[in-house]
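Our working data are protein records whose layout never changes between entries. Instead of coordinates, the fold is spelled out as a row of discrete tokens. Here is such a record, shown just as it appears in the course material:
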Amino acid sequence: MSDETTITEQPERTFTQAELDRIIAARLAEERKKYEKQIAEDRQKIEAELRAALEQEVEQKAQTIATQRLIEQRINAVATQRNLSERQIAVLKSQQIANPDDVDALAAELFGQPAPPAVTVPPSQPTGAPLFTKSQIQDFTFFQKHKQEILNALAEGRIIEG
């Protein structure tokens, strides 16, 4: 027995130019389809990421604007409470304030503690004329008893808080 095997050679297949063109065109179409699908998926992913980033940026901007409005309102309230001058208000507004709750402390730091509200008595009050408080006037019995005096006091500005 011999270890030799007989190998029969098959003739090589030859392709015409048209067959090669068709094979190459089919392969190119497959590759193009694969890449187009990948590009479309990448585009969708990028668009979703951009949308999310834009939404986050818009939300942050809206939050910043809302906070700035609250700070402005608080500055105006503090300015009214403390009777601040225009210059003091400008100084307060020029500060970097991140939280509306910080306005009071900053105003105290910059301008000191506010003076207690002064109780003013109208200068036109005749000596000995009684003052009436709003709580007294709200008492129906008291009002009926002192009706004329209360009306005079109202005309003369002798009604005070209390």
